[in-house]
Amino acid sequence: MSTPSILILPGDGIGPEVMAEVRKIIDWYGAKRDLGFDVSEDLVGGAAYDKHGVPLADETMEKAQQVDAVLLGAVGGPKYDDLDFSVKPERGLLRLRKEMDLFSNLRPAQCFDALADFSSLKKDVVAGLDIMIVRELTSGIYFGEPRGIIEEGNERVGINTQRYTESEIARVARSAFELARRRGNKVCSMEKANVMESGILWRDVVTEVHQAEYSDVELSHMYADAGAMQLCRWPKQFDVIVTDNLFGDLLSDAAAMLTGSLGMLPSASLGAPMANGRPKALYEPVHGSAPDIAGEGKANPIACILSFAMALRYSFDQGAEADRLEEAVEKVLADGVRTADLLGEEGVDPVSTSQMGDAVIAALDASI
Ligand code: NAD
Ligand code: IPM
Ligand code: MN
């Protein structure tokens, strides 16, 4: 088998800072586990705009289509706030998702025992939490037409369209049911079928796919607003949540806080299987470029590190090595190592981004 290939797109703000720690881990796997990767690096977001005048060059898009996995840091930042909408950094990421057809975005929210006390929710609400949000990623209001800002009479009108086809809903539903079968065997589908036609179709199609192919999995439905409330009230009632692009964006940031920090939440964006049988894939932390702390060495690299663990599991068939990396993160947290976002107002001194990466490497060393 040829060496698996990875394209790294560090992006903007804290993206390059957290990605530097992932590079150390990739190198560790090559040196210590004989698991070499063919790694290349390129620009996305504001960094690509600065060089090419677009947030994603066509050559980079082509490379992304060819590799076994893309790892992305984060895009965006205040420097680019006034750019034309068509070349904003975020458009580079959206183009990757759309053209790679990464329709199933897995956002696992797991509360590590060592952080159960730190979460802003009560310990017994979050301790042991392990849920998976499956967010539809290539359609819905992010991409629907018509869209734009138009003049109407003497005022401007902003327009976005929520649009879902049956097949778009069915394929993300299947991916949620498949995951549930390997986990707690429960899916909760969230939409707003009470006020949106796309929500009515969503509920119908999820129900049809369930009846035809997955009746062994327990299915429930919830309006997304009530779902947000239930996520805060008693998140352990959920196993897999499947929802649309926009609701999934909001619900996953909320779920991040159940784990203690947005700096903890990884993600995998998966598409259809490639010739080698593995899905086309992009891995990225759920957080953004964090302009408020960028350049200070304060960012928590764990979300990005855990995203690489997901790559080991979903793209490289290395489930045991993914477990090893997740256990290394768990050990570091149990040892009390904390970046600033994982500390309260007082207490121990925080470690830097690179010290956190080094601690994970040390825990990996100790695991062999
Ligand atoms: P953000 O996620 O960048 O930051 C929100 C808050 O969380 C900030 O206080 C930040 O300091 C903190 N935070 C985030 N990641 C952290 C980490 N790893 N360690 C410690 N603290 C962390 O969201 P925002 O401020 O709303 O957006 C900033 C920019 O990022 C915007 O341009 C936005 O569009 C972009 N963004 C990009 C992505 C992505 O690339 N996938 C995701 C979300 C936002
Ligand atoms: C995310 C981000 C993105 C989104 C932006 C940067 C395009 O918030 O990945 O959660 O809205 O999907
Ligand atoms: Mn988001």
Automatic annotation (TrEMBL):
GO biological process, one term: L-leucine biosynthetic process
Binding site for Mg(2+): 225, 249, 253
Catalyses which reaction(s): (2R,3S)-3-isopropylmalate + NAD(+) = 4-methyl-2-oxopentanoate + CO2 + NADH
Record localization: Cytoplasm
A GO cellular component entry from the record: cytosol
Positions annotated to bind NAD(+): 77-90, 288-300
Keywords associated with the record: Amino-acid biosynthesis, Branched-chain amino acid biosynthesis, Cytoplasm, Leucine biosynthesis, Magnesium, Manganese, Metal-binding, NAD, Oxidoreductase
Chief location category: cytoplasm
Residues annotated to bind substrate: 97, 107, 135, 225
EC number assigned by the record: 1.1.1.85
Pathway: Amino-acid biosynthesis; L-leucine biosynthesis; L-leucine from 3-methyl-2-oxobutanoate: step 3/4
Site (Important for catalysis): 142, 192
Textual note on the cofactor: Binds 1 Mg(2+) or Mn(2+) ion per subunit.
Top EC class, one word: oxidoreductase
Source taxon at top rank: Bacteria
Function: Catalyzes the oxidation of 3-carboxy-2-hydroxy-4-methylpentanoate (3-isopropylmalate) to 3-carboxy-4-methyl-2-oxopentanoate. The product decarboxylates to 4-methyl-2 oxopentanoate.
Family: Belongs to the isocitrate and isopropylmalate dehydrogenases family. LeuB type 1 subfamily.
Subunit architecture: Homodimer.
PANTHER family: 3-ISOPROPYLMALATE DEHYDROGENASE
Protein name, as recorded: 3-isopropylmalate dehydrogenase
